[in-house]
Amino acid sequence: MRIKILPAxxxxxxxxxxxxxxxxxxxxxxATALSAASAEKPRPSIDLAALSEPLQDLSPRERSLVEDxxxxxxxxxxxxxxxxxxxxxxxxxxxxxxxxxxxxxLLELGNVTDALVDASxxxxxxxxxxxxxxFLAQVAYLAGxxxxxxxxxxxIGSNPTYGPEAKKLGGALxxxxx
Length: 178
Fold this sequence. Notes:
Elements: H1 13-24, H2 52-56, H3 60-74, H4 78-91, H5 96-108, H6 112-124, H7 130-143, H8 146-156, H9 163-176
Helix pairs in contact: 1-3, 3-4, 4-5, 5-6, 6-7, 7-8, 8-9
């Protein structure tokens, strides 16, 4: 898993709270509860720094719930984390950070289909983000949605951060067709 933590210099107190959340989930385990069929496939990565902007849209109480969910995920209590994140999606249906984290929890529980729904919702919410395209490409790959995976890889192919990995995923996608 690749987590990037932004430097905290010249950040507001609100942003520092988000930074604390990013540090709190820095030990996220990778999606290990996936089906045996996907065991050899590339695993989605979480880049919480890329999610910091939508996390700022949450109230302090909601950010606290996200921190709680992150702690549950670290403890491999994915069903409980999913319950918390599901509640947050009811009050924040378009918050892409909550949707990405919920998709991650769903992947940990082996529910690739619903993870794809949440990853797609996240990608379509808020402003454009190369990371959301990258996360969706990875989940689409796991779900076997090759056209969606290719579309998202195309979106980020020239992105300096995610483009090289996206090209590798495209190669894995091509190899899976052989």
